[in-house]
Design a protein that fits this description.
NADH dehydrogenase (quinone) (non-electrogenic) activity (chains A, B), 25 strands, NDH-2 (chains A, B), FAD/NAD(P)-binding domain, 2 domains, 25% strand, homodimer, NDH2-like_C (chains A, B), six-stranded mixed β-sheet, alpha/beta, transit peptide (chains A, B), four-stranded parallel β-sheet, EC 1.6.5.9 (chains A, B), 12 helices, globular
Amino acid sequence: MSEGHHVVVVGGGFGGLQLVNDLKGAAVRITLIDRRNHHLFQPLLYQVATTVLATSEIAWPIRHLYRDRPEVTTLLGEVTGADPIARTISLDGGQTIAYDTLVLATGATHAYFGHDEWAAVAPGLKTLEDATTIRRRVLLAFERAELEQDPERRDALLTFTIIGAGPTGVELAGIIAEMAHRILPAEFRRIDTRRARVVLVEAGPRILPAFSEELSGYAGRELKKLGVEVWTGTPVTDCSAAGVVIGDRFLPSCTLVWAAGVQASPAASWLGIPADRAGRALVGDDLTAPGHPEVFVIGDTASVSQADGKPVPGIAPAAKQQGAFVARTIRARLEGRPAPGPFRYRHQGSLATIGRRAAIIDFGRIKLKGALAWWIWGVAHIYFLIGTRSRFAVAWSWLWTFLSGQHSARLITQKETEDVEAVELRD
Amino acid sequence: MSEGHHVVVVGGGFGGLQLVNDLKGAAVRITLIDRRNHHLFQPLLYQVATTVLATSEIAWPIRHLYRDRPEVTTLLGEVTGADPIARTISLDGGQTIAYDTLVLATGATHAYFGHDEWAAVAPGLKTLEDATTIRRRVLLAFERAELEQDPERRDALLTFTIIGAGPTGVELAGIIAEMAHRILPAEFRRIDTRRARVVLVEAGPRILPAFSEELSGYAGRELKKLGVEVWTGTPVTDCSAAGVVIGDRFLPSCTLVWAAGVQASPAASWLGIPADRAGRALVGDDLTAPGHPEVFVIGDTASVSQADGKPVPGIAPAAKQQGAFVARTIRARLEGRPAPGPFRYRHQGSLATIGRRAAIIDFGRIKLKGALAWWIWGVAHIYFLIGTRSRFAVAWSWLWTFLSGQHSARLITQKETEDVEAVELRD
C-alpha cells in the first residue's frame, strides 16, 4: 500500500476518470474517491428526468471501470477537507489519506443566487436522484390533475416551468412538451394533457446564449412548434410551492425545474485559495493551486481562462481535456521531463437537442440544425457512453422511442414519506 | 361518465390487470385505482434488488397499458376504505367513488410476526423502492467494508443474512453469493469479497417447502456450491442494526433481508368481513365477500381453498386465474347468464432459480432441475413480461450477464438523507 508515488483523485466525473485512464502504466498508485458509487453521464441526465432513459443506462459503478487496474483503489466516501501542508485529505468517517499528488475534480452543484429555499420547490438536475425527483414530480403533476376537481388548481398542476434556457433547460422543456402534447393525451380521461403549459424562462435576452443567434432563433422556433412558451429577458424573482414570479408577474405552476446557475464545490476553501464568484478555484495555467504545485484542480471546480480571456466552459469535453493535461504533467514530472506548457482548451463544438427530431450543433465555422444535427448528436452521445452494454441499451431505448413514440421509464419511484412531503409542500 | 355499469378495481397487480384485460368489450366502464403509477412484475423484483435488472425493465405505467381502452379510467390514489352499503370507496384526498361492482385486488405486504420494529433493519421485497433499498444496502455494505479498519466490524459488514427460504429468499441468497464470490473480487483492493458470508435462515425443516424434497435438496446443494450457508430449523428471534439472533445464537450481520412472511392488505376490515390469521378476507367460492355479491376480493388479499382443502397459493398465476374468473362472472351477470360455477385453481407448476445457471421446476409429475430448467424459467419469464420493449431489454440484460458475468444495474441511489439514516441505524 505504501510504495510509489500516490495520486489521490477526488471526484469520478469526466475529468477524474480521464485522468485515471491516462495514468495507465505510469509509476503511480492511485486512490479515486467519490461520494457516489457511480460515474454519471450528465449530458443525458435530462433524458432520465423526462422518462426516456433508465438510470442504469447512463451510470456505471466506478470501481468496475478499474477492475483490471490493481494500482487503482476506489473508495466511496465524502471528502470533507484537505490539508495542503500535511498533504492529506480527510473523509467524513474521520480517516485521513496522505497524497503525493492531489487532483480535485469535485464538480459543481446548483446555485440559487442566495435563495437556497427555492431548492425544495425548484430542484436542479445534477444527480440520478435529482433526475428521478424531477421525473416523479412531472408524472405526479399529471396524475394529480386527473384527480383534481378545482379548475384553477388543475391548471396550476398542468403548468410546468423550467428556469434557465441553456441546453439543459431547452432539452427538458422540449421533452416535457412532447410528453404533454403527443404521448400522454390518449392515456388520460378527465384532463386534456394537450392543454398543459410548458414555460421556459430566461433572464437573458435570448435562449442558448452559447450558440449563434441564428441557431438560437431556430431553437426558439422549434420549441414553439412543440408548444413551449419561451419568456426571455425576464428574471425569476420568487419560487414557491404555488408557482413562480417572473419579473412582477405570478404564474401558478406546481412543477418547477431549476436549470439556471451552478455553484462550484468547496475545493477552493479546502485549500484556502482564491475563488471566483461561482466558487471556482482560481488556478494557474498549469491547473495547479497557487503555492501548491502538487495540487491540481480541474473541471467545474476550477476557473481557467482561454487564450482569448474567455473562461473555459463547464462542459464534459473541457473537464476531459484538463484530466488528460494533468495526466501528462504528472507523467512528465515523474520522468523528469519538462511539463507540457500551459493548458489550452480546444472547443470541439456545442450541441443541444430540441425534442426528439431536431438539434443544433455549433462547430464554430460549421453550424448544423434539424434532423441531420439530431442524428449526429445521437451517434456522438452513444459513442461517448462507456461500454457495449450501455451503448446498446441507449441505442435500443432511442430506437424504440423513435419508432413507437413512447418512453421507456415512466416510473414514479421514491419513498412514500417523500411523496407525502412533496404533497405537503404543494398543499 | 355516469352511464353504464361501473366496475371499480382497486389494485393494478396481476389479478387486477387480468380482470381489466378480460373485461374488454363488455358493457361496463371501469375505474382502475392503484397507489403506484406502475404495474410491477414481482417475480423478477429480486433481480432488481441484486443489480441484474433495472427498475424500468420490470415495471410499466398502468395507464399506458389501457391507452386504447377509452372506457378504462386509471387513477393514482390510495384507497382508504369502502362502504359496501352505500357502494362507494373513498380515496385519501377525501373523494368518494361510487361502484356497481367492486373488485379488491390490493395484495399483501411483509409480516414481521408482531415485530414491526424489525422492518427498519430487515427490509422486505414488495415494491421497486424495497428493491432499490436492498440493492443500496448490499452495495453499501461492500463499500463500507473496503473503508473499515476494525476487523470485527468488517466481518459484520461482509455478512448478509436472508430470512426465509421460499423462492425469493433462495433467489436473493444465490445472487448475492455470486456477486461476492465471482463478480466483485477483482474490484476491491483492501477486502477479499470472497470471504463474505451469505446466510439463508429458515425456521422450517427445509428450504423451498413448496417443492418436492428431492428438488429442495438439489437447491440446497447448489446454494452451498455458490457459497451460501443454509441454516434450517432455526427461527429468527431478534433483528437489530448489529445483526440477527437465530435461535439463541447471535450472528453479527449488517445487511438483513426479510423474505419470511406476508400480511394481506386491509380489504377485509374495510368490508367488515372475517379474515384469516394473515389478514386475508375469507371469501366464498365465487370470490365474493359474504353478504355482498357485488364485491369481489382476489389475489393475495383473499383466502380461498382448493378442492383438496389446501389454500390457493399467493402467486401470480393464482391471482391471474381469479381475475379471469371474476371477469367471466361479471360478464355472465350483465348478460343474464348463470355464473360460471365455483372458482377452481389450476396449479401450473412452481419455479425457482439458484444463481445464474441452475433452476428447479416442479410441474407435479414432471420435475426439472439444472441448466435446462434455468432456460425454461428464463424463456417463461420473458414471455410473461408486458410488451416488446421489456422483453427485449430483459433478454438483453440476461444475455449480457450470462456472457460477461457482470450485472447491469449496480447503482447506489436514494436521497442523501436516507443514506445518512441508514448509517445512523447501523452505527
